[in-house]
Amino acid sequence: MVISTQVLFLSFLALTCSIGLASDPSPLQDFCVADPNNPGTSSLFLICYVAVKLNGIVCKDPKLVEAKDFFRSGLHVPGDTNNSAGSQITPASIVQIPGLNTLGISLARLDFAPNSIVTPHTHPRATEILTLLEGTLLVGFVTSNPENRLITKTLNKGDVFVFPIGLIHFHQNIAHRPAVAIVAFSSQNPGIVTIENSVFGSKPDIPTNILAKAFQTNPAIIANIQSKFLR
After folding, report:
1. What is the per-residue pLDDT for 58?
2. What integer pLDDT is reported at residue 14 of this predicted model?
């Protein structure tokens, strides 16, 4: 059987593109400072013909790169925790630091009011590592099916905890005073999927009979929960 050059080339491209989109790729240059004002895309994006831009945002001309592209101030300022969860995330990601583009990391500050939480959620594209600067937190994650094992730890000032990529996890301030943490991610765009918003606040709603069966309750209770989420 003779395989044409075109078939081999297309097969190579398919393999290359699938690998390139599987996770944050290693950069092939010193840096690729994000240029949100540039409507262009990378050549690999054009070859693969995918529906998203590879690495998120194209590079600024290296000759125009400045120190400010790698800098963000303000993480010493407490976040506003006046919300239903009592916590606030202050990001230091590609939006705030364009120089993070293609480097595969990002950062955030977490502020907690007394007895507050960051609700159960996942990061589909990143492992998270948390360093507690002040206060006391109860943190934990749940392993995948079928074990669904809950692994928890009480953290105090100076403690560090890791949340593996994709697993549901949470943070709770169990003290009667504020808490502050710094979290780092193994992706420039870790993503976040909050469980309650995804399940009960989807647009449009997941049918109540499906959720009622999943949670072994009646549809009226599900509808009542769904009504509490803003659309």
Report:
1. 86
2. 45
Looking at residue 5, its pLDDT comes to 55
Q: Residue 28's Cα: distance from chain center in Å?
A: 24
Phi/psi region, residue 167 (left: phi>0; alpha: psi -120 to 50; beta: rest), is: beta
Alpha carbon of 83 to those of 87, 113, 175, 195: distances in Å? Answer: 7, 10, 18, 18
How many C-beta atoms surround the C-beta of residue 16 within 10 A?
A: 13
The model's pLDDT over 212-224, given as tens digits with 9 standing for 90+, comes to 999 999 999 999 9
Integer Cα distance of 108 and 223 in angstroms: 34
Lookup: tokens for 118: 């960051």
Per the rule left: phi > 0, alpha: psi between -120 and 50, beta: everything else, 216 is: left
What tokens does 198 get? Answer: 């995804």
As to burial, measured by CB atoms within 10 angstroms (0-12 exposed, 13-18 middle, 19+ buried), residue 167 is middle
Three-class HEC string of 95-152: CCCHHHCCCCCEEEEEEECCCCEEEEEECCCCCEEEEEEECCEEEEEECCCCCCCEEE
Contacts of residue 7, Cβ cutoff 8 Å, sequence gap at least 6: none
Per-residue model confidence as pLDDT tens digits over 68-89: 999 999 999 999 999 989 999 9
Q: Which of 34, 39, 24, 107 is CA-nearest to residue 68?
A: 34
pTM: 0.80
Cβ atoms of 184 and 107 within 8 Å: the answer is yes
